[in-house]
Structure formats: C-alpha cells, structure tokens
C-alpha cells in the first residue's frame, strides 16, 4: 500500500493514474479494465500492484463526493493472502521518510490472516470490510497521553467491552464485515462520503452507515499486495509480508469519483 520504495512508480499519460509496481507486481490495462496483479512472491519480499492519484501528499478529495468502483479479486477468497482494496487515505507511511502521519482512511478494505486490524468492537480483524478511521480527531489527541494505561486496561475483557467504544469513537473507526464471497464476483461498490458520515453500498444496496468520517483531503488508491498488519487495542502491533503461492489480481472494470 505504498509503504515501501517503488521499483516503478510512473504517471500514465493516458489516464492520469499513478502506477506503482513493487517486487513481483504488475499493473496493466486490458479491454478498458485495470488489472493489478501481485505474482508469486517469497515471504521475505514485498509485492504491491497499485494505482493512485497523488504523488506524495497532493491529496485532492474532500467530502461530499460519491465513489463508484466495479471490481473483483481472484483467486477464491480462502486462498487470498495479504491486503487489497480501494478508496481514500492519507498515506500515513511515507516511503523514505521518518515522518509519519496519523492515519485517515475511508474505503473498502480486505486483509487475510495473520492480519488483525481489530479496532472495531464486534468486527473481526481480518476480512472484507467497509472501514473508516480518523486518528486526527481532537478526541483521539485528547486521549493519547493516557494510551499506555489504556492498553493495559484493554487487556481486561470486562473493561475492554465497557471502555473500548470510547476509544473507537475517538479514532473515528467504523467498520462492517462483508461476505468474502463477494470478492471473487464482479460487483459495484459505492461510497457516499459526507462531512457528517458515509454510506457504503454494494450493487445499490446500502450495507453500512458510518457515523464519523475523515475530513480530508485524501487521495484515491487501489491496490493488492502481500503485506499483513496487526493493530489491537490490547497493544499488539506487527507488520510484515507473507508468501504468495499464486498470483492475485484485483480487476477494476470502472472507477468513478464525483464531487457532490
């Protein structure tokens, strides 16, 4: 997802998309569709096939807008590894720079175990999700000094159940788990991003209403890679790569972003 130096990172003169191919990755256009492929990759190598519309931090998108993407991901869901998705974020990890940004994102996001981004109470860490996060909210910044104590408290199940909703709201996290079988079929995904919330839909049917969203500006990104991430309220953190025994392709038949 742009966390590493790109082997190739070029602007497509025909479309305006910025193409990233890292490791054993390939991005190509075929019959009007974008095919983002992470080819077989060993565990110690990172592969990322990505298109985006920003260079470093020249993000352009703010609410209100509607994003419509028609997409599918192969192979079948049980065999998928790493992460994939499409939507908007602020690229919190800058390649080649020490500086980090507090994460902001609003997107359709897939991750496979051992990934465990478990920030929404009652929603599993891995899976195919709708998701928002906005760690730049003042509520999160106000709670940040108490984070070390909070991590210890979250390890007590009863306290986690009672107190974590406060932390979840503070970081603007709202998620909904989708049926992973949707991934390997072609579906149309819609995001209506508003300043006061967001609506996620699949084939015209609303599947999730998020009460809080990032304010932006954010950049559009679509990708498939072999990365995993572990982030939990109990203080578990980890990042790395997993082997890809077979190619994984995110097919994007249509991408439309319309300011409202």
General description of the model:
By secondary structure, this protein is mainly β. It has one domain (8-259): Sandwich (Jelly Rolls). It is built from three helices and 18 strands. It has helices at 138-143, 147-154, 157-170; strands at residues 8-11, 18-22, 25-30, 33-38, 48-52, 65-74, 83-89, 104-111, 116-117, 127-134, 174-178, 187-194, 197-202, 205-210, 219-225, 227-231, 237-241, 248-259. The strands form three sheets. An eight-stranded antiparallel sheet has the order 1-2-5-15-7-8-10-11. The longest helix has 14 residues, at 157-170. It is globular. The chain starts with 7 loop residues before the first strand and ends with a strand.
């Amino acid at each position: 997802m742009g966390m590493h130096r790109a082997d190739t990172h070029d602007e497509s003169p025909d479309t305006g998309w910025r193409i990233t191919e890292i490791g054993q990755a390939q991005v190509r256009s075929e019959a009007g569709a974008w095919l983002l492929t992470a080819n077989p990759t060993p565990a110690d190598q990172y592969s990322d096939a990505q298109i985006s519309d920003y260079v470093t931090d020249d993000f352009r998108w703010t609410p209100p807008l509607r994003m419509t993407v028609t997409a599918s991901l192969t192979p079948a869901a049980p065999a998928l590894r790493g992460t994939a998705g499409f939507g908007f974020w602020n690229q919190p990890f800058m390649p080649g720079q020490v500086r980090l940004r507090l994460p902001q994102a609003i997107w359709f996001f897939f991750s496979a175990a051992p990934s465990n981004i478990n920030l929404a109470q009652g929603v599993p860490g891995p899976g195919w999700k709708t998701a928002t996060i906005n760690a730049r909210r003042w509520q999160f910044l106000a709670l940040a000094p108490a984070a070390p104590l909070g991590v210890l408290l979250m390890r007590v199940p009863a306290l986690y159940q009672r107190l974590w909703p406060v932390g979840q709201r503070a970081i603007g996290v709202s998620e909904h788990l989708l049926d992973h079988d949707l991934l390997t079929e072609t579906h149309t995904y819609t995001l209506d991003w508003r300043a006061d919330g967001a609506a996620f839909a699949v084939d015209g049917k609303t599947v999730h209403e998020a009460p809080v969203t990032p304010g932006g500006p954010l950049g559009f990104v679509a990708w498939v890679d072999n990365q995993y991430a572990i982030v939990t309220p109990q203080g578990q953190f980890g990042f790395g790569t997993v082997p890809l025994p077979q190619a994984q392709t995110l097919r994007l038949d249509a991408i439309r972003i319309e300011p409202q």
